[in-house]
Design goal:
The complex is a heterodimer.
Chain A: H1 2-5, H2 21-33, H3 38-64, H4 79-103, H5 113-133, H6 161-194, H7 198-207, H8 215-248, H9 260-286, H10 295-326, H11 329-339, H12 345-357, H13 365-368, H14 371-397, H15 414-437, H16 443-453, H17 455-460, H18 469-487
Helix pairs in contact in A: 2-16, 3-15, 4-5, 4-8, 4-9, 4-14, 5-6, 5-9, 5-15, 6-7, 6-8, 8-9, 9-10, 9-14, 10-11, 10-12, 12-14
Chain B: H1 10-14, H2 17-25, H3 46-64, E1 89-97, E2 100-109, E3 112-118, H4 131-140, E4 150-151, E5 154-155, H5 159-173, E6 177-182, H6 188-200, E7 205-208, H7 215-225, E8 230-233, E9 240-244, H8 255-265, E10 277-282, H9 287-291, E11 294-297, H10 303-315, H11 326-340, E12 346-350, H12 355-368, E13 375-381, H13 388-399, E14 403-409, H14 413-416, H15 420-428, E15 432-435, E16 449-450, E17 461-466, E18 469-473, H16 486-493, H17 500-512, H18 515-524, E19 526-527, H19 544-552, E20 560-565, H20 579-583, E21 591-592, E22 597-599, H21 601-606, H22 613-617, E23 620-628, E24 631-639, E25 647-651, E26 676-677, E27 682-683, E28 685-699, E29 701-702, E30 718-720, H23 721-726, H24 730-742, E31 766-771, H25 780-788, H26 796-799, E32 809-818, E33 824-836, H27 845-849, E34 855-857, E35 863-865, H28 875-879, E36 886-887, H29 909-914, E37 935-936, H30 942-954, H31 972-976, E38 982-986, H32 993-1001, E39 1006-1007, E40 1019-1022, E41 1024-1026
Parallel strand pairs in B: 6-7, 6-14, 9-10, 9-12, 10-11, 14-15, 15-16, 20-25, 22-24, 30-41, 31-40
Antiparallel strand pairs in B: 1-2, 2-3, 4-5, 4-16, 8-13, 17-18, 18-19, 20-28, 21-29, 22-25, 23-24, 23-28, 26-27, 31-38, 32-33, 34-35, 36-37, 39-40
Helix pairs in contact in B: 4-25, 6-16, 7-12, 10-11, 10-12, 12-19, 13-15
Classes of the chains: A mainly alpha, B alpha/beta.
């Protein structure tokens, strides 16, 4: 069994800096146990301010109507649904990292999965605000739920993609939340055990559900992780597929496109990884976690970005080709006259530059491993992906079938922008609280890989690959035993 | 070597008892029921839990269901006889404004007039109406109406006191001249009352002042025919119509009558394809010009030259000074040839107010033999009687202090007179000034006494728009305010103590001979002569040569010329405070709530205004300063095709004062000061103006941004008549090909090509057919729909954001054609009007995307909205290929569940005007007022369908949907249409007109908008056919359609 556990020297260590189990616990728990830094307070207050502005923007919209936004009879969806799709897309990276990479046994995921999962949950929370509050009568939003009622009963319309969205998003949110939280339980128990105040002990005690670390708990925990990973994996693909159905099943030229499901999923992973990069690069710096989120992690994720970015690029070109090939005048006009050119042409080219052209720079290893460059790129990609949704939504409806109904130029109102900023506020408020009160790196999971991929282990094994096969085998065996026993040590 | 100890948790390290126990039980844990008992014996078992859960949920819900406010409605204590609450009554009446008269039927629901329909007994209008007629019911409930008489701006509590004051004031004047200033009046009784008044007050005078004057025609006819009158025109009898700037479908003389005639003459029967040919010469693009088969532009100052040239061409005279423009010369030649080819069936009309030009037009009509055929002198038109010179004389006399009393009724010279300042100055010198106007308008403001007249729906009266064609007014509601009929006042002041209502009744009873005859006339609303033969007037040509000489020597225009025109909606400006009319998109520019300078693309380029893609999508328009004859006007510009390159057109009727009303105040600018008086008549054109760009911008709220249909033949279809004759089945073949492509297996286009089942419609199935050949784009249907369906007014600021709520809009497309060199031929402008409302698709894209089933399909084939189910995702609106769904972006109606959320939502004053308790009396109680956040759209007037079905059911007979002219059900737009372009009915009934149109009479012209989307609309259109040789939309040579090239690229 043991040879499989041996990790080749070709692979870089996943944890730098000769960490021991205790170091891991200390490094990750210290932010929770220490007082927040000045930087944290500044960031937190800015986030809360944004959130409050968002709350006010939504208050205006709910009280006075969607007319507070600059949508109109032709452009019926604008920033609201753009932001919805964008946030949902962002969420995808977390699920991909925690579920699909778990199933594929990609051990580098342990460094980033916790924060990425948290990001997923917060992003889905943000995303969910938009389809809810873009309703003209949001207090009737429960009409979308198939609950037994006295109206016949009157059911929702199961033909409607918006109905499918309700199920897709809520399922996704619930599964992601469970997955994230079940992973947190052992770590919360660690914090509970280290707690020095009664209140802290009590609260973390509740949060850790009486985790004792018994073999039984671990066994159930591992099984649950696997089950949830199995459940989440199709969700990664299905959620954005269903979101894309909002457009793909419609008859609006530019929306009515069969390529949308895979294209949306690729785009979602693309933007999700970019967002993970943005957050991780800041987090590792601010929380001094460079040892756990290494350049290696960053490079791996950049590879995903260049792959998905290229897929998205292919999709853009396919769309153009299909519009030309279809011979449908509405499609052709739409793509060639009003999307790549016309009043919103700038947004198409911005999207192309950000999403297709610039990520190609990641073919260079130097750039892939350059932290500053990666940070800039992650922002660029997220801007690009926002514009992708904007281009799809707004530039499709603003000039559809009847030229008489074409629209004036759509610009967001302050309250539309406010709503978007508000979701940033929500996202970062949640993220700051998460970073303060929860372990941002999965302590238990990183300990799994410490003895195979940690720097000390790599160095210790450094000479082994020069040994004879026999000696190598013996050594591995020995090291493996040590490893097996070490794994059990979850709590210092 | 020290043995390492590994531990999993602190318990293991210390090896506590609890740890030992847990180690033993680790894999054998009981479920945590209460200790020692089984599941069922537990004190709080699962069922209890469910009970608690259920109870607490129910309790929370009960607590949450808040108390609803109770609104009390009070039933009749003594119900009036013959009156059933909820059942409307209909009264015949007549709409009268500015001399125009349209016989109408007023729908009165629970004592309130709420809707105006045309009176179908009228042979002149055939039941047609216009937008101002449809909107007039709203004026009844205008908040700005005066509610009591005023003296020195103070309320006078009784009419007796007012009469005493006026009598005293009149007595004090002695023999000074008293002038009664009115608009054109053709009511026999009113004229009788006026003559009584004049007789009682010797030295007094009645002056008629028409703000949109036809003095030129009256003077010319006096010179040519010896009659100061306007003949009736017979557009239906004319095979060739040439109009020299007369907007006879929009605002010229009697447009409702003319529209009906015009459409009748252009009714196309595919078996015998023939229609009249209409050629228009004009400077700006008018509604009539937009409907013309061929159109030639010229400078306004050239109107006389064009008339002269046409006259010369027809009479074969030598042309001494033909127009310089080659295309215009060609146009005149074409027109002359066409006219010549139709002797006795040709008609030339002219909108000019210049008597000389009109003399020439009379001479032309004489050459053509129109006199007595297409021009009918047997029953002249009485809609304009004012002589402009008299108004000029009045102002002079007032300034000189020679007028003792001025009594103003229905006119507002202080606002719309060519010399408004002179008028108000003169008014200062008149000792007794009195106004009968319904509000404190610009003139009334300066009057000492004000005794407001009734609204026409509160009045008795009669009208005689054409001699012998008399229609009546009767009150449909008791006066809302302390107002008194103007005629009653005059009678009182003539010493006759009689109410005008009694006067009208006795007058007509006497005239008609019996009470029964009068009752019938009143019930019918009109009496008409037995179809008289067209009359002829003897023509004297003595004035023709002098007139031609004067035209030849007339001053040439400057570089840029200005035309003042009246909009179809606002007209002279009397109804400026009517939000329905203000919000009605102009047929040509599609702009609402403003006037502006319309210019050509060439002019825009010259002024440095680029008309590119951004110009189209940005509502902010550059402003220009127009300087003319010492006056200055700064207006935003709209560039449209079809304008003469050097002509600027500005609408009158805007820029009303604050007191005119909330909706009117601050809208547009007053262009009347640019009207001039040339010694004989008012001049509505300025032949030399200077204009420059100011650098400022101003937003114009228009409802259609894109003007071309981009060659999308599936949107709208048009033919040339010659093409239609040679290939009548062109369109049909294309549709059959489509069905073939989509339904390879079954041949059934309907059933195949969709995932959804093909539902049968066993009962009635509703459908509508719209003839694009008959539709003139006038917009009466839009306003009728607004009135019938309580469509909200949103105000300019909301229209600017594409938030207009009209259920029915009229799409207007400009199409120009590119010649071989790739240059757009701007003169060959085709304009298509296409009424667009919910198409009630049988395979509706809106229905399947609604998450909550708020929009669904009825078993009778219409797409219905359930407002209280709608949560407002707007997905349906996005997915509607026709973009006819309207969303309530704000609380436009005050019907929202959030109280007081209108003012902070930044809504316009017009919205608040519409929500006033008084104004809300106009609402149709059969139609829900929509609240914020829900989608709404055309319902095919479902309330009318239900009413009609119930009526048929109660009478135990089949539903009548138009067979032999019997209708149980008609939509508001259909009923309002002056040209009968809209036909609605049961398509499952083969005898209904809509089935006949689709399946028998017009099969070759039927098309469905965007048919290839397979949305299966229930609204069909009939392709537009133009009687022209120019290339037109659909052709054999260009089966994909050649229409809709880019006029905007031509600058």
């Amino acid at each position: 069994m043991s040879l499989i556990k041996y990790e080749s020297q070709v692979r870089e260590p996943l944890i730098d800096g000769h960490k021991t189990y205790h170091d891991v616990t200390e490094d990750i728990c210290h932010t929770i146990e220490a007082k927040p830094t000045r930087l944290w307070y500044i960031g937190f207050y800015i986030s809360v301010a944004l959130l409050l502005f968002g709350v006010y923007a939504v208050y205006r919209e709910v009280t006075y109507g969607i007319g507070q936004w600059n949508l109109g009879r032709t452009v019926g969806w604008g920033w609201d649904i753009t932001n919805f799709v964008w946030w949902v897309g962002i969420g995808h990276a977390g699920t991909l990292i925690s579920a699909i990479l778990l199933l594929f046994r990609q051990r580098w995921r342990t460094g980033v999965n916790r924060a990425a999962e948290a990001m997923t949950i917060f992003a889905v929370m943000c995303a969910g605000q938009f389809p809810i509050f873009h309703m003209g009568r949001v207090w009737m939003a429960f009409f979308t739920l198939p609950y037994p009622n006295t109206r016949g009963p009157l059911w929702p319309n199961f033909n409607s993609p918006l109905m499918w969205d309700v199920f897709a998003i809520s399922t996704y949110f619930i599964v992601s939340l469970l997955f994230w939280y079940s992973g947190l339980i052992p770590d919360l128990a660690t914090i509970r055990d280290r707690a020095r105040t009664k209140l802290r002990k009590h609260l973390y005690g509740i949060a850790s559900f009486g985790w004792t670390g018994s073999t039984k708990h671990w066994q159930r925990h591992e099984s649950l992780s696997l089950v949830l990973a199995g459940l989440s994996t199709p969700l990664v693909l299905s959620v954005h597929t269903i979101v894309s159905f909002d457009f793909a099943t419609s008859i609006v030229p530019g929306w009515h496109t069969t390529i949308f499901p895979p294209y949306f999923v690729a785009g979602a992973i693309f933007s999700g990884f970019a967002m993970v990069q943005t957050l991780m690069l800041v987090m590792r710096k601010v929380m001094r976690l460079e040892a756990y989120i290494t350049v290696n992690h960053i490079e791996v994720m950049n590879k995903v970005i260049v792959l998905t970015g290229s897929i998205v690029g292919c999709a853009y070109l396919t769309e153009l080709f299909m519009a030309w090939y279809s011979m449908v005048p509405y499609e052709q006009d739409h793509f060639f006259k009003y999307r790549i050119a016309g009043p919103y042409g700038w947004s198409y080219w911005l999207m192309m530059t950000c999403n297709v052209i610039s990520p190609q720079l990641f073919w260079f290893k130097k750039l892939r491993r350059n932290i500053a460059f990666t940070f800039v790129m992650s922002i660029v990609v997220n801007i690009g992906m926002w514009f992708e949704r904007f281009v799809i939504i707004v530039t499709s409806v603003y000039r559809d079938y009847l030229p008489s109904a074409w629209s004036i130029y759509y610009r967001p109102s302050i309250w539309e922008i406010g709503f978007y900023l508000g979701t940033f506020g929500l996202f970062f408020t949640c993220f700051f609280l998460f970073a303060k009160y929860f372990p941002v790196i999965a302590i238990a999971e990183i300990k799994h890989v410490l003895k195979t991929s940690g720097q000390s282990y790599k160095e210790k094994m450094g000479g082994m690959e020069k040994l004879s096969a026999r000696a190598f085998h013996d050594n591995v065996h020995h090291g493996d035993e040590e490893h097996e026993t070490h794994v059990k040590v979850a709590h210092h | 070597m020290q043995q390492k100890k590994y531990w999993q948790n602190l318990g293991e390290l210390k090896d506590s008892e609890a740890y030992q126990a847990s180690l033993n039980d680790e894999f054998a844990e009981e479920l945590p029921y209460e200790a020692g008992t089984g599941m069922a014996a537990a004190t709080a078992p699962r069922r209890d839990f469910l009970k608690y859960l259920g109870f607490s949920t129910a309790a929370a819900m009960a607590a949450a269901s808040c108390e609803m406010p109770v609104k009390k409605s009070i039933p009749y204590l003594n119900k009036p006889e013959n009156f059933i609450p909820g059942v409307p009554d209909y009264y015949a009446s007549t709409w009268v404004q500015d001399g125009l008269a349209v016989p109408v039927v007023v729908k009165v629901r629970d004592g309130r007039p709420i809707k105006i329909e045309g009176n179908e007994l009228s042979s002149l209008t055939g039941g047609g109406t216009s937008a101002p007629v449809q909107a007039s019911v709203l004026d009844l409930y205008d908040m700005a109406r005066l509610r009591f008489p005023l003296a020195d701006a103070k309320e006078v509590t009784s009419f007796e006191a007012f009469d005493k004051m006026v009598a005293g004031a009149m007595a004090g004047l002695g023999s000074a001249k008293k002038v009664l200033l009115t608009a054109t009046i053709h009511s026999q009784t009113t004229l009788a009352v006026i003559s009584k008044f004049l007789a009682k007050h010797p030295g007094s005078e009645h002056i008629t002042y028409d703000v949109l004057s036809a003095s030129g025609i009256l003077l010319a006819n006096e010179a040519c025919y010896g009659k100061r009158a306007i003949p009736a025109y017979r557009f239906d009898q004319a095979r060739v119509i040439v109009s020299l700037g007369a907007d006879f479908l929009g605002t010229w003389l009697n447009p409702v009558e003319f529209s009906r005639q015009y459409a009748a003459g252009r009714q196309l029967v595919p078996s015998k394809p023939a229609m009249s040919k209409h050629i228009q010469f004009e400077g700006m693009l008018s509604l009539t010009g937009a409907n013309a088969d061929d159109r030639y532009v010229h400078r306004p100052s050239e109107t006389g030259a064009v008339a002269l040239s046409l006259f010369n061409a027809l009479s074969g005279a030598q042309e001494s000074n033909p127009p310089a423009d080659a295309r215009l010369r060609k146009g005149i030649a074409v027109a002359a040839a066409a006219l010549k080819a139709a002797p006795g069936a040709a008609l030339v009309v002219c909108g000019s107010n210049d008597p000389d030009v009109q003399v020439l037009v009379n001479a032309i009509n004489e050459v053509l033999g129109a006199n007595g055929t297409t021009i009918d002198w047997s029953a002249p038109l009485n809609v304009r009687k004012g002589m402009d010179a008299e108004m000029a004389r009045l102002i002079q006399e007032m300034k000189e202090g020679n007028v003792g009393a001025l009594l103003v009724h229905g006119v507002n010279p202080a606002y719309d007179c060519f010399d408004a300042k002179g008028f108000t100055d003169g008014l200062q010198k008149v000792p007794l000034t009195l106004s009968f106007n319904d509000r404190v308008d610009e003139t009334t403001k300066h009057c000492k006494y004000v005794i407001p007249d009734h609204h026409y729906l509160e009045s008795w009266g009669d009208a005689e728009a054409r001699t012998g064609y008399i229609s009546f007014q009767q009150p449909t509601i008791a006066p809302l305010f302390k107002t008194r009929a103007f005629q009653t006042s005059l009678l009182q002041w003539s010493g006759e103590n009689v109410e005008y209502g009694a006067f009208v009744q006795s007058y007509w009873k006497e005239k008609l001979g019996s009470q029964e005859a009068w009752d019938k006339a009143l019930q019918d609303g009109l009496i008409e002569p037995v179809s008289p033969a067209a009359g002829k007037a003897s023509f004297s040509s003595s004035e023709v040569v002098p007139a031609a000489n004067r035209i030849e020597s007339a001053k040439k225009g400057g570089k840029t010329e200005l035309v003042l025109y009246a909009k179809v909606s606002i007209g002279s400006g009397k109804s400026a405070n009517n939000p329905w009319l203000q919000e009605m998109p102009d047929p040509i520019t599609k702009a609402t709530w403003d006037n502006y300078a319309i210019i050509s693309y060439a002019k825009a380029k010259e002024l440095g205004i680029s008309v590119d893609d951004n110009y189209e999508v940005e509502v902010q328009k550059p402003m220009i300063r127009i300087k003319a004859s010492g006056r200055e006007l700064t207006l935003p510009v709209l560039a449209i095709p079809g304008m003469h390159p050097d002509v600027i057109a500005v609408a009158v009727g805007y820029g009303r004062s604050e007191q005119t009303g909330k909706a009117a105040a601050g809208v547009g600018q007053n262009a009347y000061p640019l009207v001039s008086f040339n010694g004989r008549t008012f001049d509505y054109q300025v032949t030399d103006v200077a204009c420059e760009k100011t650098g400022d911008q101003y937003p114009i709220a228009y409802t259609q941004t894109h003007n071309q249909y981009e060659g999308r033949k599936d949107v709208v279809r048009e033919y040339a008549l010659s093409e239609f004759k040679s290939h009548p089945k062109l369109l049909l073949e294309q549709r059959e090909k489509l069905a073939e492509d989509y339904a390879k297996n079954s041949g059934d286009y309907r059933a195949e090509g969709t995932l959804y089942p093909n539902y049968p419609y066993p009962g009635p199935k509703w459908g509508m057919s719209i003839d694009l050949n008959s539709c003139t784009g006038c917009g009466a249907c839009t306003v009728a729909c607004t009135a019938e369906n309580n469509v909200a007014v949103v105000g300019k600021s909301e229209v600017l954001r594409n938030h207009e709520m009209h259920w029915l809009r009229i799409d207007r497309y400009f199409a120009t054609y590119r010649d071989d060199s790739g240059k757009d031929d701007l003169d060959s402008l085709n304009v298509v009007f296409m009424p667009m409302m919910c198409q009630h698709c049988d395979n509706a894209p809106c229905e399947n995307v609604c998450p909550v089933n708020a929009t669904n399909h009825s078993s009778e084939g219409f797409n219905q909205m359930t407002y209280n189910r709608c949560i407002g995702t707007r997905y349906c609106a996005n997915n509607c290929p026709f973009k006819v769904r309207r969303f309530n972006w704000a609380d436009y109606t005050g019907a929202d569940s959030f109280p007081d959320n209108q003012s902070d939502a930044k809504l316009d004053p017009a919205v608040f005007q519409m929500n006033d308790d008084l104004t809300r009396m106009v609402l149709n109680p059969d139609v829900t007022v929509r609240s914020r956040g829900v989608i709404e759209k055309c319902s095919f007037c479902v309330q009318r369908l239900q009413e009609g079905k119930l009526k048929a059911k109660k009478e135990n007979r089949p539903l009548e949907t138009g067979h032999e002219g019997k209708w149980d059900v008609r939509t508001a737009c259909q009923q309002a249409c002056p040209t009968h372009a809209i036909v609605f009915g049961n398509v499952n009934d083969p005898k209904s007109p809509v089935s006949k149109v689709r399946d028998e009479d017009q099969t070759t012209r039927v098309f469905y908008a965007l048919e290839q989307l397979h949305v299966l609309p229930n609204v069909s259109y009939l392709a537009k056919v133009r009687n022209t040789d120019r290339p037109v939309g659909l052709s054999v040579a260009h089966p994909e359609g050649v229409g809709g090239n880019h006029a905007e690229t031509a600058h």
